[in-house]
């Protein structure tokens, strides 16, 4: 099952120009599944970086903005898109020219994968 999921994710990374990585983690940034190219920056995939997403979504809800679904950060060389699929976080790392709309459009396509991984994580 994990091999099928990895194959699907690898196809997505290959088909979206400029996408370097898709990572599924828990709230604390612990990686559960990762598919990446050789261009994926390791420093962006550290648990400390990914866990800041949970801090940001908590702050947004305290401001009365409601539940945060996605967080998009742009830097000089990279764009990071994080999707709130609690208890999982899905993180995409892409170059600065990647079409973020294509990444956001993947959300419904990734729902079955998120459901499968959530079941695996929640099993005792």
Automatic annotation (TrEMBL):
InterPro entries: LAMTOR3. One of its GO terms (cellular component) is cytoplasm. GO terms for biological process: positive regulation of intracellular signal transduction. Gene3D superfamilies: Dynein light chain 2a, cytoplasmic. SUPFAM superfamilies: Roadblock/LC7 domain. It holds the Pfam family MAPKK1_Int. Coiled coil: none annotated. Belongs to the LAMTOR3 family. This is Uncharacterized protein.
């Amino acid at each position: 099952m994990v091999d099928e999921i990895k194959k699907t994710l690898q196809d997505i990374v290959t088909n979206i120009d400029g996408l370097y990585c898709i990572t599924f983690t828990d709230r604390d940034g612990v990686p559960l599944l990762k598919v990446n190219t050789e261009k994926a920056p390791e420093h962006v995939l550290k648990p400390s970086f990914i866990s800041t997403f949970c801090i940001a979504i908590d702050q947004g809800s305290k401001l009365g903005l409601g539940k945060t679904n996605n967080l998009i950060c742009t830097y000089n060389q990279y764009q990071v898109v994080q999707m709130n699929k609690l208890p999982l976080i899905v993180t995409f790392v892409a170059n600065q020219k990647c079409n973020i709309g294509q990444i956001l459009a993947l959300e419904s396509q990734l729902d079955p994968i998120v459901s499968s991984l959530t079941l695996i994580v929640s099993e005792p």
